[in-house]
Design goal:
heterodimer, A: mainly alpha, two-stranded antiparallel sheet, 12 helices, 72% helix, 3% strand, B: alpha/beta, Rossmann fold, 2 domains, six-stranded mixed β-sheet, five-stranded antiparallel β-sheet, 39% helix, 20% strand, globular
Chain lengths: 294, 411
Amino acid sequence: MDEIIKITFDILSFSCIMVLIVSGLAIIASLMGIFNFAHGEFVLLGAYTTYLFQEAGLPVWAGMLVAPFVVGAFGLFLEATIIRRFYNAAIVAMLATYAIGLIVREIVRPLIGGRFWRVTEPIPGLFEIGDMSFSIWRGVIIILTIIIMTGCYLFLAKTNYGLKIRGAMENPALARASGISTTKLYSFTFAFGAALAGLAGALMVPLYLLFADLGLRFLVMAFLSVMLGGVGTFEGPVLGSALIGALVPGFQWLRELPIIVDILSPIFSEVLVFITAIIIVKFKPQGLIKRGRL
Amino acid sequence: MDNNQNRYRSNPSRRSFLLGSSALTAAGWIAAGTGTFVLKPNWAHADGHIKMGIATDITGAIGASGNTCWQVAQLAVSQINDAGGILGRPIELILEDTASDPGVAVGNVRRLIQKHEVDVVLGGITSAMREAIKNPITKRGKTLYLYPQLYEGQECTSHLYCTGPTPYQQCSELIPYLIKQGNKRFAMPSANYIWPQLLNKWTRRIIEENGGEVVLEEYFPLDQVEYSATVGKIKSEKVDHVFLTIIPPGLGPFGKQLFESGFQKEGGTVSCVYYDENSPFYVEPYALEDTYSCLDFFHSVNDPFSKQLVKDYNAMFKDTNYLLTAGTASTGMYRGIKLYEQGVIATNGDLAREAVSEALDNISVPEGPGGPYKTVPGTGHCAMNMYIAQNKGGDWNIISSANMVPPNECA
């Protein structure tokens, strides 16, 4: 029983990180049809901002608070200068975002000396339930993710602006014809998606390390999640990311079982995540939740 | 996708495509450029330099160790040059960044040899790096190579000298000590490359010979960040001691997750044979507390030469974050440079690889970091003092030591 609680907690915390990262990507992809290859670098920038606060002697939680705004502003700037020129050519847009990602990554790399840096979590240590101990910071991430996702959902479902976004997601031409300015909408959404990614990076960097390729590592899993969850809705990719977030540590946990431990090495477990995703997509090509204009 | 959007296409003309791609290629060439860094001695005459190439990881996951090696190399060479050089000839240091990436390293090392024509190369930290650069240096490059880092043994390539400790030197004292402390069940979480795989073979044998048992031995990709399942297994299998061979970037997350599972709180202990005074770069202090290490040098070693060396290093590099430590290959780097100096003195200034290599085969050096050391003839390795230490509050306290432990390699 203890084991199951521990497993659930660990899987849940990793899923939450994936959900935070992917939700921004999902909104951008669903609304504008652009797969943002620089999304990993938004995560990196959020983590880097937090690290800068730590190095300047300021509290780390302040850095985490500021990171989404910094990255959101950067997203707004990118959208206004580069991304908006490519709304009519989605493939070229992907190339453009890939280039942006490359530039950001290689600028950050020498700034952090090409090395790996520790960022200490604002609330380190463990909390105990019975004789099981859990990382406090992972618990904080789970709680924050639930709050943020609930907030996003309420924003999309209950507010006027959210209604406009959903309308534009389903049918942009009709939305424009109804007087909704899709340009402003796209700017806001891109910035919002970037801010979410920045927040994800800031929150999860104490669990790992800050390094220039941090974004790349999660980008591949993020795309898998969006592919799995289906483009066009908000819930689809969130579900997809929760699934991927569960599979990555989940397959490692599968190795606890007696026979599986002999055939499944830790390295193959990573490959298995991708194989599973491919199998799921084979049966559900539109993703787990298919709605929206794709 | 909206139908309207498909109607808009951009048709790049052939000319603009060619212009664009050639501009990109030119930019790529310029960007690749030269990455070499050359340190000329300040009393130079045009000929007569001895060119020493240092190929180490200045950037990347192993950067903390690489930077330390480079600084120690500068210290050693400045000491030699200030004393008049080797038989009157100054040493010129040439640095290439191997960037913790064996693929990149091969190209950079080739530049050291073909463009700069160095007389000797010292460097490489991870075994993967050594394996990648040893042939470009010793076979195609026909150059002498000294490898300064602790490693898994079985490196018997000719004209390749290892100045860091071997598994026998590190584990033959450490494991019996750990078992005497009451640790019977061992776990060996490892990075998936050659050093942990071969080291674990040694360690498993010594553990089993001394009555212990290995309950977990697993190999992870270098960049794995989630270890919850492994840590869970370590707890459920009631492991007494974790013999850790995970390297950065996985090291930080693993140390954290192991601590967060309560392993140390319940009395579990950890050892890692490259943990030293620089480890706070990679590992949180709370994960470092009470861990064991066995190396050829710690700052707490009570040896006047070692203490003076640390003082000179700190004076030359004030406020540096990179301390002179054994786990970063920097003690091996110092040893290697001094060995080369003795080798060239023994050949009376002949820098030809065969001559120096033959001289290196049998050299005793009375003073070094951690104590005296000597090459064991026919093996290409060094006998040296070894110390077992435990981390308490950030300091490494020496528990026991052994003098001039033989390397037990390439016999």
